[in-house]
Write a structure and sequence with these properties.
Length: 83
């Protein structure tokens, strides 16, 4: 790899404020805001609007759509044209 062309890859905390959830990972994303993590070190923090802790699919609160009703309505509307 060429020297000096790649962004810095450092530990960063991503924080989901809506779910009061944060995790430490490595990323090329940067921030001027910092947070003191559980290990006592300070890391840049990036606030996100949604994460696995607050997304309806991962929390099990996703709504199931009535697809059978939509399919039947489609068949009633356009099924006669094929006859």
């Amino acid at each position: 790899m060429k020297k000096g062309i790649h962004p810095r890859y450092e530990p960063v905390v991503f924080r989901d404020k809506s779910a009061d959830f944060a995790f430490l990972t490595r990323s090329t994303a940067t921030s001027t805001e910092t947070i003191t993590w559980e290990d006592g070190n300070e890391y840049p923090v990036i606030d996100v609007e949604i994460s696995a802790a607050s997304h309806p699919f991962y929390t099990g609160q996703a709504k199931v759509m009535d697809t059978a009703g939509r399919v039947e309505r489609f068949r009633r509307r356009y099924g006669k044209a094929q006859s």
